[in-house]
Design a protein that fits this description.
heterodimer; A: 201 residues; alpha/beta; Aconitase, domain 4; 7-stranded mixed β-sheet; 8 helices; 16% strand; B: 467 residues; 5-stranded parallel β-sheet; 16 helices; binds iron/sulfur cluster
């Protein structure tokens, strides 16, 4: 997994609330058996018309946001299905972090497994960052995971919370499975006890 | 010992490891797998030269993109990419030695219907699947939730999940339901009340007389949509109905093991004075048959209501409601019961079980549909067979419904069952998102009886007027 330490980049504003995983990556793109190549289909139905042409009004089609690395989004971002294709598509497009007042849990989890940092901030902070993002490509924000701070283009700072284990994995690009397998002895002994207590499982 | 909730009890019984920072490894009893969210996970295992730790606890079935028309055993009758995913699951199930129900097996169906039907889902278990509606299994008093593909791989390799504990939320539905009101109306009404993010960070336990009174199938409908309320999982404490449902199923415990299991299962309820972080109480009598008008499951209203105006909402919801009204092509003030429907879809893991088909058939008996098309997609091959035996299939086909094979079908429209742009559908599934049932398609969610009523009149209809 790609490490996440610090990202300075363009932020795209997406104020809509309840942006769901069907919007992020519609189901017709779930038929892949790979993790890569989904970036062109990110937000497909909002981004392209029925003939596959770009809809110029859609934020990521605007010249100033085509290289966005950060999304500033309305509340409950990523609600809906468990499809990890949503963070895969975001990542493949080049998005490294999403800022919102809240995220759906499975999506939030899936981000960390793919080197994307989801950041929860209070409404006032998101409002400021949303305005900042609306300024376009000159307004570069910085997200510093080590110090847990988002800095707007004007230098305004907002600190955020992140689980220490997840932060550690993200900063070091660690593979969860490898870490868990180091605890194989605990799993073995738990399994032996559980099998005795609940043999029908 | 301090009093515990049901969630606390199941959590404690599955805690395999706890690190100093509170990160936990939760042991997983059942891992359900389907073709769409698993190929990359199995591929990851192969690349890392890892194996499936507990193949006997891993159950796979293709459901999301299989066609629901005859001849589907032949991959030539699937789109190429669907056939590739199904073939990948066939191969992965075989290579890793996990339990498998291929499309040719009568037991094949939607993963959340097959699990309970075969007795894989039992009280007190931890159950996961790369699918958000895994919450369904919570109806058995099992801690069940959806996971992403990386976590699917993690469970395959380690039989555990890295978790932090959620908070406890109680949703109590008191009293009795009025006639014509179903489990679907309960679960939609709860989301209408809490919003789609109201459960975020919580595991919900549903309780109260109206929940106790539901059948196991109704309870599955309620828990199924816990995820639409944002919760990690929904739970209902097991009782005599649960035990009776489970007993005798192919993978349920037998004889002495049954007795031992029962002894533990009977302890699986929240203690009297357990702590709740959030409590919501709704009177059963106050719940009406509901439908959704917008593009979020929280956009729910009694069928007797009018389409709301966007400015009747607050904050970011104003814009979302405006967008939803445009997408759904509805005018504020319009009566919901005046909305004309093109298509009716009865099925999905929310409402594709035998009781759902019975409820719909009851309304349809001796009537004809007044919509362009209507389809019933049973949740499993066994549900389909049972419905045929009971004569329900005949009622559906005589009314003008298509009688399909089991799968997810038009719930998410990954197979050829899709809405055309602008087509309006009365659906018994769980998501009304933009494009969910096909690009530009418009979905109204409701109970099977309400969907059947809409099929008969061609409009959203209060089923109570037909009773
Ligand atoms: S029926 Fe619909 S909600 Fe249920 S598992 Fe299938 S696609 Fe998901």
């Amino acid at each position: 997994m790609e490490k996440f330490e610090k990202v300075t980049g363009i932020a795209a504003p997406m104020p809509l609330v309840n942006i769901d995983t069907d919007m992020i990556i519609p189901k017709q793109f779930l038929k892949t058996i790979k993790r890569s190549g989904l970036g062109v289909n990110l937000f497909d139905e909002m981004r392209y018309d029925d003939n596959g042409n770009e809809i110029p009004d859609f934020v990521l089609n605007k010249p100033q946001y085509r290289d966005a690395e950060i999304l500033i989004a309305g509340e409950n971002f990523g609600c809906g299905s468990s499809r990890e294709h949503a963070p895969w598509a975001l990542k493949d497009f080049g998005i490294r972090a999403v800022v919102s007042t809240s995220f759906a849990e499975i999506f939030y989890n899936n981000c960390f497994k793919n080197g994307i940092l989801p950041i929860v901030l209070p409404q006032e902070a998101v409002d400021v960052l949303m305005k900042d993002a609306e300024k376009g490509s000159n307004a570069r924000m910085t997200i510093d995971l080590e110090n847990q701070v988002v800095t707007s283009s004007d230098g305004e700072e907002f600190s955020f919370e992140v689980d220490s284990f997840r932060k550690h994995c993200l900063m070091n690009g660690l593979d969860d499975i490898g870490l868990t397998l180091e605890k194989a002895a605990s799993i073995d002994s738990f399994e032996a006890k559980a099998t005795q207590a609940r043999p029908w499982v | 010992m301090s009093p515990k909730t049901l969630y606390d009890k199941i959590w404690d019984a599955h805690l395999a490891h706890e690190a100093e920072d509170g990160t936990c490894l939760l042991y997983i009893d059942r891992h359900l797998v389907h073709e769409v969210t698993s190929p990359q996970a199995f591929e990851g295992l192969r690349l890392a030269k890892r194996t499936v730790r507990a193949p006997d606890k891993t159950i796979a079935v293709p459901d999301h993109n299989v066609p629901t028309t005859p001849g589907r055993e032949d991959p030539k009758n699937m789109t190429e990419d669907s056939a590739i995913q199904v073939a990948a699951l066939d191969k992965n199930a075989k290579d890793f030695g996990i339990h498998y129900y291929p499309v040719s097996d009568v037991r094949q169906g939607i993963v959340h219907i097959v699990g309970p039907e075969q007795g894989w889902t039992l009280p007190g278990m931890t159950v996961v699947c790369g699918d958000s509606h895994t919450a369904t299994h919570g109806a058995f008093g099992a801690l069940a939730h959806g996971i992403g593909t990386s976590e699917v791989e993690h469970v395959l390799a380690t039989q555990t999940l890295i978790q932090k504990k959620s908070k406890n939320m109680k949703v109590e539905i008191t009293g009795k339901l009025a006639p014509g009101v179903t489990a679907k109306d309960i679960t939609l009404s709860v989301i209408g009340e809490t919003g789609t993010a109201g459960g975020t960070g919580y595991v919900i336990e549903y309780c109260g007389e109206a929940i106790r009174d539901l059948s196991m199938e109704g309870r599955m409908t309620v828990c199924n949509m816990a995820i639409e309320g944002g919760a990690r999982a929904g739970l209902i404490a097991p009782d005599e109905k649960t035990f009776a449902y489970v007993q005798g199923r192919p993978h349920a415990p037998k004889a002495a093991q049954w007795e031992a299991a029962m002894a533990w299962w009977k302890t699986l309820h929240s203690d009297e004075d357990a702590h709740w972080d959030k409590v919501i109480t709704i009177k059963g009598e106050d719940i009406a048959p509901v439908v959704t008008w917008g593009t979020s499951p929280e956009d729910v209203l009694p069928i007797t209501a009018d389409v709301p105006a966007a400015d009747s909402f607050d904050g970011g919801k104003v814009g979302a409601a405006q967008r939803a009204l445009e997408y759904m092509d509805l005018t504020p003030g319009q009566k919901l019961s005046d909305i004309e429907i093109d298509t009716v879809f009865i099925g999905s893991c929310t409402n594709g079980r035998i009781e759902d088909l019975r409820a719909a058939a009851e309304v349809l008996k001796g009537k004809k549909i007044a919509v362009k098309r209507a389809m019933v997609v049973p949740g499993s091959g066994l549900v389909r067979a049972q419905a045929e035996e009971e004569g329900l299939a005949d009622i559906f086909t005589q009314a003008g419904f298509e009688w399909r094979l089991a799968g997810c079908s038009m719930c998410l429209a990954m197979n050829p069952d899709q809405l055309a742009p602008g087509e309006r559908c009365a659906a018994t599934s769980n998501r009304n998102f933009e494009g969910r049932q096909g690009r530009g398609g418009r979905t109204h969610l409701m109970s099977p009886a309400m969907a059947a009523a809409a099929a008969v009149t061609g409009k959203l209809t209060d089923v109570r007027d037909m009773m």
